[in-house]
Design a protein that fits this description.
CATH topology of the largest domain in chain B: Rossmann fold
Helix content of chain B: 10-25%
Strand content of chain A: under 5%
Number of helices of chain A: 15
Distance between the termini of chain B: 35 Å
CATH architecture of the largest domain in chain B: 3-Layer(aba) Sandwich
Number of domains of chain A: 1
Number of strands of chain A: 0
Shape of chain A: globular
Strand order of the largest sheet of chain B: 6-7-8-3-9-10
Radius of gyration of chain A: 23 Å
Helix content of chain A: over 70%
Structural class of chain B: alpha+beta
Order of helices and strands of chain A: HHHHHHHHHHHHHHH
Largest sheet of chain A: none
Largest sheet of chain B: 6 strands, mixed
Number of domains of chain B: 2
CATH class of the largest domain in chain B: Alpha Beta
Oligomer: heterodimer
CATH superfamily of chain A: MetI-like
CATH architecture of chain A: Orthogonal Bundle
Order of helices and strands of chain B: EEEHEEEHHHEHEHEEHHEEEEEEEEE
Structural class of chain A: mainly alpha
CATH class of chain A: Mainly Alpha
CATH superfamily of the largest domain in chain B: P-loop containing nucleotide triphosphate hydrolases
Radius of gyration of chain B: 25 Å
Distance between the termini of chain A: 36 Å
Amino acid sequence: MSPSRLATRAGIYAFLGLFAFLSVFPFLWMIVGMTNRTGDIILGRFTLGDAFLENARNFFEQADAPLVFWNSAKIAILGTIATLAVSSIAGYGFEIFRSPARERIYGVLLLTIMIPFAVLMIPLFVIMGKLGLINTHIAVILPTVASGFVVFYFRQATKAFPSELRDAARVDGLKEWQIFLYIYVPTMRSTYAAAFVIVFMTAWNNYLWPLIVLQTNDKKTITLAISSLASAYYPDYGVVMVGALVATLPTLFVFFIMQRQFVQGMLGSVK
Amino acid sequence: MSALTLTDIRKSYGAVEILKGIDLDVATGEFVVFVGPSGCGKSTLLRLIAGLDEISAGTMAIGGVRMNEVDPSRRGLAMVFQSYALYPHMTVEQNMGFALRFAGMPKAEIRSRVLDAARVLDLEPLLKRKPRALSGGQRQRVAIGRAIVRQPKLFLFDEPLSNLDAELRVHMRIEIAKLHRRLGVTTIYVTHDQVEAMTLADRIVVLRAGAVEQIGSPLALYDDPDNLFVAGFIGSPKMNLLPAVGAATPMGAPALRIAALGDALIPLPPGAPKVAEGAPVTSGIRPEQFDPAGPVGLDLTVDIVEHLGGTNHVHARKGDAPPIVVDVREGRTLRPGDPITVRFDPAALHLFGTDGKRLRA
């Protein structure tokens, strides 16, 4: 290899290495932090300590971990299933069924992706109040169910769904809803898996909206619990880091078990 | 009784009329092929018969019963698609039995029908495989098997061989012909490949721009085309269509002058259609109708030779005129630039008027 190519290659590796480090650093910091006491963390200690068990015990005592974990899981799983069901039907419908108003309605739907959540927050809060849903998990789930982005994602993916499969199913005697359920859903499994990962992670990490609508401790999610630990008068960073780890594990788990389908689904959606 | 009757079938999308009044009567057990260039409406017509699109006007009947508004699954037909349209998440067996399962047929009956079809199509070892583990030809056989198990009154094939390579296409073409002979089910087959149409059909329906150009047996269309389009479409290589003008021999007998053949005076045989002197016509002669024993001979120059082994397609021209294609069996040694004398019988000429219609005596 010539010196100039070697230098180019070295430059590329240095660049990639830097960004890899920047990506991985928060995780490393989390792992190191959860084994150290607050004082050491503030002093910038970056070696593993011996305080993990103490931090973990404190976290489970202070945060009512099983309850907040359960709340988060319930919201994320139910929210994801509802979002996939509603948005995939919408995406399929937008792509398959023709109507003169289709593209205009779809355009309006895409516009909703552009609206910042901060703008929607107050109207949504008022709506939830009128529906009597404040401080319920349904109030957290409901606004995310018809997601403009997920509808868009499913419409794009449906472009790869062969129209002849639908024709064959019609000749075989299936009605439209049966075609969706028995042919489309199993055929688009990878698309659903990829969407599941994205929607689940968003729902699990959701912070601002639950902070507004969930008002009692028994309803709070894990992100809110960690936040309240971090915003205490004397925050215990070791405990916060244990909470961050506990909060990260489910999303990592979901991602790794669906990794293959996730990649296939993302490829399939842009092909 | 007719298996399928189409009466003035029309299909429009908005102001655009795709099918402009199709009439057709298909007898029970008949193999009818719709053929025509891309965009002629042949697949649309098949979709209307299947019930996958709505008929804008006209009547469609299967076995004498009006079917315009009947659901596709209740028309008693089965369809084979160009891309096979196998359900990717089901095994071959599940694919073949899916429609029957949906119709509520007992499991034992479904299994028996699937196994029968698998035996006929040599699919038995593949029953537990998913479509992605099959070759193109195997997938096509599964698609046909899926149609067979329904024991339909009418088979619809939509360009089923287009996705296969040339060798497999010939093989599957023969398989479909055998299958039709064995099952005797009325079949409508859409293709743009006129060789498929010629080899499979009892009758061919030639379509162009949403209208029927001619209906007839393959040989009737080949020997006796009604118009320029059919003459040019049926036959491979296609008929030589050469502009000509009416003329008369010094004795006053009717004749033609064909520019592409050097404006030589070609006397028309008795019984040929009348062409007024100076009237423009199109004369057509098939490459294989040139005959070394023909009474009229012309000296041409070889432009290109396509050696096919058994025969040779020689593209030859007179001066700067467009080349004509001649089928020459003994032409292996011919090379571009060689002189060649081609002979033919003027009785073999097909004559077409300026409106494209065949001139008949």
